[in-house]
Amino acid sequence: MADTDDAARASTRWRWITLGEVLAVAAVAISALTLWDSHSDRVRSAETAERSSAKQAQEAEALVLRATPSRDGEQLALAPLNGGQAIQAQTILFPSALGLAPVETTGDSRIEAGWFDDALKTVRKAAGAADAPAGDQRLPVAIVTRYVVDGKSRTARTLQEIGYVLEGRFLGGHAVRLRGMSLIDTVGQAAMQQRLDAIWRGQAPKAKAA
């Protein structure tokens, strides 16, 4: 009988020891999981902060041009929307149909109507377009801008759309008056002129209705 009691007590102690070990292992596992979750949260927070910082840096470096009409619409003064950027030089390309060479500017960023008005009016006349159509007309151009941001040199290649009107002049004829400019798209160097010409074909002046 005594042997039976001793065996029962030993069995009970074994069960308690086993349960204690299980609880200890569970506690270690829970601690490890908690530590892993905490580490994962820190990693995710660091990755989020890094992505946010990279996005902010990219946005700070991206060039957006603001065009302001001046000299009674004879010129558009160009400036970065971001005050932390400084334009060094620009190249303005026109649709091939106008037969114009690219124009280079340095320091004084601008677009002048005199660079293309005669060619544009010649193309419009050849197409039979109205001399003074209602509303704003559109002329696509490609602009290569070399600028500096945070001490680093950058180059932006964009397709832009110049808004203009044709106004009658006192002594006859019509003058191109520039109204503004809007972004169409960014573009790679190889496809720039091709894309520009394709946009022009879609917007080229049409003959006036009979």
Describe this structure as you would to a colleague.
With 210 residues, the chain is of the alpha+beta class. It has two domains: 1-61; 62-203, no CATH class. Helices cover 40% and strands 34% of the residues. It is built from three helices and eight strands. The chain has helices spanning 2-61, 117-127, 192-203; strands spanning 65-70, 75-80, 85-93, 103-106, 110-112, 137-149, 152-168, 174-186. The protein has a five-stranded antiparallel β-sheet with strand order 4-3-6-7-8, with helices on one face. Strands 1-2-5 form a three-stranded antiparallel β-sheet, with no helix packed on it. The longest helix has 60 residues, at 2-61. It is elongated. The N and C termini lie far apart (123 Å). Residues 53-60 have low confidence and may be disordered.
In DSSP terms (H or I, runs of 4 or more residues), the helix count works out at 3
Numbering strands along the chain, what is their spatial order in the largest sheet?
4-3-6-7-8
Which residues form runs of ≥5 with pLDDT under 50?
Answer: 53-60
Series of H and E elements: HEEEEEHEEEH
Question: Quick one: how many beta strands?
Answer: 8
Give a quick account of the main beta sheet: strands, pairing sense, barrel closure: 5 strands, antiparallel
Radius of gyration over C-alpha positions, nearest whole angstrom: 35 Å
How much strand content do the residues show?
25-35%
- How many structural units, i.e. domains? 2
User: Judging from the principal axes of the Cα atoms, what is the shape?
Assistant: elongated
